[in-house]
Automatic annotation (TrEMBL):
<protein>
    <submittedName>
        <fullName>DUF5343 domain-containing protein</fullName>
    </submittedName>
</protein>
<dbReference type="InterPro" id="IPR035235">
    <property type="entry name" value="DUF5343"/>
</dbReference>
<dbReference type="Pfam" id="PF17278">
    <property type="entry name" value="DUF5343"/>
</dbReference>
């Protein structure tokens, strides 16, 4: 397992290349020749390739994966990248579920425990992770994304907050102008991300039946 973490000595090139993915066609293969052809000619730019493999953007042979293509959608790109980071750095996220929020020394200690890098390479590995994390969005799943790509354990959806008059108090009210006591009902529904519109319709229909039995259909 030692020395398996990717690193780059130039994080600016890495972030620039990720932006490049969104504005270019999908190549047949990503190798040094391709990097040079699109303007990444520095010897240090070669580090980009193992980083892309580590986060699932390209295969071991250099062919762009589905995640590369999904990342071209700029509206979803930060979340797609977050998924790749979490998969590539799965061991880190097991230790720190919010690893992207950890301070540099905590990350350095983790890299030291996983590699035989000297301190210079440890620093590059940490900076690489941080540069990727700075372009990602970890907190929410991708809109419309399939469960195979991103699957939150549970979707928490606040459905409704309603103020319903107390029926007994209404009957006892001496006049239309009298103050009527009321109570609040707060309902929070937990549904899996795969729930469709019909699921919600059935929930609202049941809620109406039990809370407002005299309402017209």
């Amino acid at each position: 397992m030692a020395n398996e973490l990717p690193l780059t000595t130039n994080t600016a090139s890495l972030t620039r290349f990720l932006t490049h993915i969104q504005g270019s066609g999908v190549p047949a293969k990503v190798d040094r020749s391709y990097l040079k052809s699109v303007g990444f000619k520095s010897g240090n730019d070669g580090y980009i390739i193992p980083v892309l493999k580590h986060i699932g953007f390209i295969s071991t042979s250099g062919a762009p994966e589905t995640r590369w293509r999904s990342y071209r959608d700029k509206t979803r790109a930060p979340k797609i990248l977050a998924q790749g980071i979490q998969e590539g750095y799965a061991d880190l996220f097991e230790v720190y579920p919010e690893a992207y929020r950890k301070d540099e020394e905590a990350l350095r200690n983790w890299v030291r425990s996983k590699t035989e890098y000297d301190e210079v390479k440890v620093g590059h590995a940490v900076k690489t992770f941080q540069a990727l994390g700075a372009m990602a969005e970890f907190d929410k799943p991708v809109d419309g994304q399939s469960d195979a790509e991103i699957t939150p354990a549970e979707a928490s959806v606040p459905i409704v907050q309603a103020t319903v008059p107390n029926a007994a108090a209404l009957a006892a009210s001496p006049s239309p102008g009298a103050t009527t006591p009321s109570f609040n009902i707060n309902i929070e529904l937990h549904l899996p991300p795969s729930a469709d519109a019909d699921t919600y319709d059935k929930f609202f229909a049941a809620m109406k039946k039990h809370l407002f039995p005299d309402a017209s259909a």
